[in-house]
User: Which sequence fits this backbone?
């Protein structure tokens, strides 16, 4: 029998089942200092941090399943119980899962630099996100950003003004041992860049509240006439991808993408026949953030189904 890809799923948290904001001292069963890694990749740094700092709790954010799998395997080798990981965009994580002044340090190694001018809009550490991170950090907390792309350093420093951080810049050698860092070193790069942002002034940013997600009932549904109109207004967007219909079970599954600003979620919505008529609701087992865009997606599917 082959060895399992990972030994334990305990470090992995279903963000949909967590309270918001999350009581991390309850999750870890202690009140040790709390640190966060944004985009932990294959988990090399997160594993080392947790092993070297047994009296610190770590929360990691990553969006790619294969990287989470590799990280869980690494964490299984250490036997440490001071790490939890989530498959979630860090923006949503900081908005909803952390109370103000609870994080002592935030790490982000080699965030995507999006070097093309047309792609700069995708960069993470914009002014508004830096204010959000500030609000969740303790006074004197540190945000560490490491990159191989010098223009990214200049861009971040332009965005720091008014975010409550002081900035320290360093030229550094490769010392984090991540997959990408090793690749760049093998390619001949010897110099990397580190920004340390220290919180000196608190910038208050309110916690985002969950939106109410409704179920809908209506009398008639014709899947052949289902016509979905994409929605975009006030930073909320919903776009239709596909609909699959099972005539025997009288169930349709609608796939849409729901976007709240930069937070994009793939949503599956069910249209099903019941004794009371047709109903529209989220598919069972859906892991999502209950945002305005998800609420709007349900409304859009309901309107399209009702008018079919």
Assistant:
């Amino acid at each position: 029998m082959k060895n399992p890809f990972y030994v334990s799923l305990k470090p992995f948290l279903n963000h949909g089942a967590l309270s918001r904001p999350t009581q991390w001292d309850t999750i870890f069963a202690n009140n040790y200092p709390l640190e966060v890694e944004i985009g932990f990749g294959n988990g090399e740094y997160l594993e080392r941090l947790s092993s070297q700092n047994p009296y610190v709790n770590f929360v990691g954010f990553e969006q790619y399943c294969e990287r989470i799998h590799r990280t869980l395997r690494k964490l299984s080798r250490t036997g440490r119980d001071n790490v939890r990981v989530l498959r979630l965009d860090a923006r949503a994580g900081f908005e909803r899962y952390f109370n103000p002044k609870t994080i002592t340090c935030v790490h982000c190694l080699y965030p995507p630099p999006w070097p093309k001018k047309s792609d700069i809009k995708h960069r993470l550490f914009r002014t508004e996100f830096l204010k959000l991170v500030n609000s969740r950090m303790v006074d004197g907390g540190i945000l560490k950003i490491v990159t191989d792309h010098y223009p990214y350093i200049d861009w971040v420093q332009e965005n720091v003004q008014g975010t409550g951080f002081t900035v320290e810049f360093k030229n550094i050698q490769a010392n984090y041992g991540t997959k990408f860092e090793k690749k760049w070193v093998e390619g001949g790069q010897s110099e990397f860049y580190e920004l340390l942002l220290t919180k000196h002034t608190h910038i208050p940013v309110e916690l985002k509240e969950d939106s109410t997600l409704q179920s809908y009932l209506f009398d008639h549904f014709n899947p052949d006439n289902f016509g979905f109109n994409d929605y975009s207004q006030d930073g909320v967007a919903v776009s239709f991808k596909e609909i699959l219909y099972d005539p025997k079970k009288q169930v349709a599954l609608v796939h849409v993408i729901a976007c709240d600003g930069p937070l994009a979620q793939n949503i599956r919505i069910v249209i099903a026949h019941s004794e009371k008529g047709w109903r529209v609701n989220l598919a069972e087992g859906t892991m999502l953030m209950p945002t305005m865009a998800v609420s709007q997606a349900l409304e859009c599917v309901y309107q399209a189904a009702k008018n079919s």
Residues 15-199 form a domain with the Rossmann fold fold (CATH 3.40.50.150). The chain has a mean pLDDT of 92.
